[in-house]
Every structure is written in C-alpha cells, then in structure tokens.
Amino acid sequence: MSHEGIRILNATEAEREATQEQLKLPPDAVTPAKVRVKKSEGTGMEIDWRDGHTSTWSFLWLRHGCPCATCHEERDAAGRAPGIPKPKPQTLLPMYEAPIKPLEVSPVGKYALRFKWSDGHESGIYSWEYLRRQCQCAVCTAK
C-alpha cells in the first residue's frame, strides 16, 4: 500500500500551516507591476506592486535580509530581524569595508530575483512574497 502524497502533521506544524494560509497575501499584493534595480546608482531596489503599493530597499538591507537557509538560520540563532547586520567586533582601528553591492541580478522564473553580491554570496532567492512581507515603508513597518 502506497502512502505517497500523504503527510502527517503534528499540532505545531498544522497550526503553522493554518496561520500561513490565513496570512496569505492577495495576488495583486505580491505581483510586481514594475521592478527597478538601481544598480548603476548603487542605491537599491524599488517595486511598484499591482495593488498600488510601492516598496523600497537599500542594497545593504537586501544583503543583510538574504532569505537563503544559511543566512536565515544564522539570523534566527542570533535573534536578528532580516536586514539587520551582524555586530562587528570592536577594534581599536576599524578597517574600511567597501559597500556591498550586487554584481548581477537575474529573474528566477516569474516569482523571484537572485542577486550575486560583491562579497561572493549568491544563494538567496528573493521571492515577491518575501519582498512584500519585508516592505520597509512607514505604513508596513508600523503594522
């Protein structure tokens, strides 16, 4: 007897799935009307969503908000929110670090973007839903 496609959830997993389903954003809220990656200016990225909302992120925020498993787990373990950098060790004379910037930006299907960063990192896939949930505007951050 085959049990393919059958999942048995414990109470916590079932509650998490139910909560995620309730919090699902409407399609227009996670569908970009226009995406501007300001690579030449070095400032960041803007998305105009189909529902009329506009979101803006700096490249530094995007790098520190990387959604890949490694970055996500490290942030969770440290108790940091996406976009918050790791604390730097205190030194007598801080070393200069060139600002992190994207070297390449490419679409991933019709649902996300992938950045290749100047620090060598490139495993994060920034889905439209993730980006909308991480909107940095005053309205969204007040919620």
From TrEMBL:
GO molecular function: metal ion binding
Ranges of residues in domain Gamma-butyrobetaine hydroxylase-like N-terminal: 39-132
Coiled coil: none
UniProt KW NADP keyword: no
UniProt cross-references to InterPro entries, sorted A to Z: GBBH-like_N (IPR010376), GBBH-like_N_sf (IPR038492)
Gene3D superfamilies: 3.30.2020.30
Keywords in alphabetical order: Iron, Metal-binding
Keyword Metal-binding annotated: yes
Signal peptide annotation: none
Source superkingdom: Bacteria
Listed name of the protein: DUF971 family protein
Organism: Granulicella aggregans
